[in-house]
Design goal:
With 290 residues, the chain is an alpha/beta fold. The protein is 36% helix and 28% strand. A hairpin with a 6-residue loop joins strand 8 (219-224) and strand 9.
Length: 290
């Protein structure tokens, strides 16, 4: 099972936090700065010709002999787009794939239970996206959708981040991207700029295996690129491993600095981490969920 019963029981008790003003066209549970017709009182204002007479507070009139209109906080929804890396570099490693899918499922489940509108796009898998849905009734359907994703068919070989751009939502919202981000930084940066230009608050969750974070290979090996199947013969030694670690460190540092400068949240986790620790410890500590 992708999410344990214990995790599923805990998720509805938490909310996804966002600084994006909810601008969905439907009512939700998030308090907007706009005024509307919810039951949460905001303040009074004097009656003006054309106002709805039903909004007049007659108790206030009895006290002041002036007509006041009650104003209420508008409750709106947040549009949450989840982009799940389903390219070969993720799905061919079961541990990495399982955690990435669990994170996607946890965010989607939490959003639907919180009355937000959620979509999920498995980038690299030749299946239709889970289009925007709203309400707890769709939460189990989302988990079934993720569990049914095809992992044996032909995989996409293009840039994951370039394909994310093809799924851009038309309205502002929160975009959660789950990937290993092991691709050229220029492609990542360009795509993130496009997302922000589309009025998206962006959060990156990077999932890497222990072998990617700290490889301990030795001897003569044939390395095969999981995306383009290119083969490379390598004699693993301390010099080669040190070179890899330096390149990975530079890649991570550059990406984190770019995200910091652009106000993009980023978390890196090991594929061996437990989903409960990622969601309820690491992401709560970052303030991404409440």
């Amino acid at each position: 099972m992708m999410l344990s019963p214990r995790v599923i029981q805990r998720l509805p008790k938490h909310r996804i936090q966002s600084t994006i003003l909810a601008k969905g066209t439907h009512r939700g549970e998030r308090k907007s700065t706009k005024l509307g017709t919810s039951l949460e009182f905001s303040d009074y204002r004097l009656y003006s010709p054309g106002d709805d007479l039903r909004q007049i507070d007659w108790n206030a009139y009895a006290r002041t002999k002036r007509h006041y209109i009650k104003r209420f906080m508008d409750e709106q929804e947040l549009l949450i787009s989840i982009y799940l890396d389903a390219t070969s570099s993720v799905v061919l490693d079961q541990q990495k794939r399982d955690l990435a899918q669990s994170i996607a499922g946890a965010f989607g489940y939490m959003g639907l239970c919180g009355d937000d509108r959620v979509s999920l796009h498995p980038i690299g898998d030749n299946v239709p996206s889970f289009q925007f849905r709203k309400g707890r009734a769709y939460s189990s359907k989302l988990l079934s959708y993720i569990a049914s994703l095809n992992h044996t068919g032909e995989r996409a070989t293009q840039s994951f981040m370039k394909d994310v751009i093809r799924k851009l939502p038309k309205k502002s919202g929160l975009s959660i991207i789950i990937s290993d981000f092991m691709e050229p930084l220029d492609d990542i940066k360009s795509s993130l700029k496009r997302l922000q230009a589309q009025r998206q608050q962006v959060r990156l969750i990077q999932v890497l295996t222990e072998d990617e974070l700290n490889p301990r290979y030795s001897g003569d090996l044939k390395l095969i690129d999981s995306e383009n199947l290119q083969e490379t013969n390598v004699s693993m030694n301390k010099k080669v491993l040190d070179s890899y670690r330096k390149r990975l460190s530079a890649h991570q540092h550059d990406l984190r600095r770019f995200c910091s400068e652009r106000g993009i949240g980023m978390v890196t986790c090991s594929a061996s981490d437990e989903i409960e620790n990622v969601m309820f410890r690491d992401l709560r500590k970052k303030g991404w969920i409440l």
